[in-house]
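Attaching the record inline, Q. Sequence:
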Amino acid sequence: FFFFQAVFAAISLAIVFGTMLDRTKFVAYIAFGIVFIGLIYPIVAHWTWGGGWLAQDGFLDFAGSSIVHLQGALAALTGTLVLGARLGKFRDGKPQPIPGHSIPLFMLGVIILWVGWMGFNGASSLGAVGVNFADILVNTNLAAAGGVIGATIGALIMFRTLDVSQMGNGAIAGLVAITAACAFVDPWASVLIGFVGGF
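Structure, as predicted:
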């Protein structure tokens, strides 16, 4: 159980690090990681998973949409606001796309995350017997697929083209969006949640 929760904390921290790449020295990563894992993450996780004030108010987060992903995203936003934009992101005040280096490797990463999410969400039940384990896995997959569809439609509307990188981002967005509710919703709702997240 400790290892399972430690991995959740590490994932939340990885979200933060991903937004501050190439603009922070390694020693700053380590210092922030100690504060985040040692103080910030446990307090916020306790609010829901430890019976804290959010849990007492009826807040549900089955596998970490808010505890893991939102907490990491808010810390990442804070870091981004402090550090500013990536070098080369703006030219003459206009944002410039920073393309990925390898779309095949990017998509391999998306597929690995998609498959790994089955463990992330499914294992949050802490057992496969006597729980809605199969429903959790179905909802997780349907939300990721809905995220791909939402991102595809969004890319067609915004960019007038099909964009594989947006589709991959949509799959991840669908996975994140369903993580809190994967054990509580019907399959049709999973598709809708994923679609909105991906869009």
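The longest helix spans residues 133-159. The helical segments are 2-19, 26-49, 53-56, 65-83, 103-122, 133-159, 164-179, 187-198.

More tomorrow.
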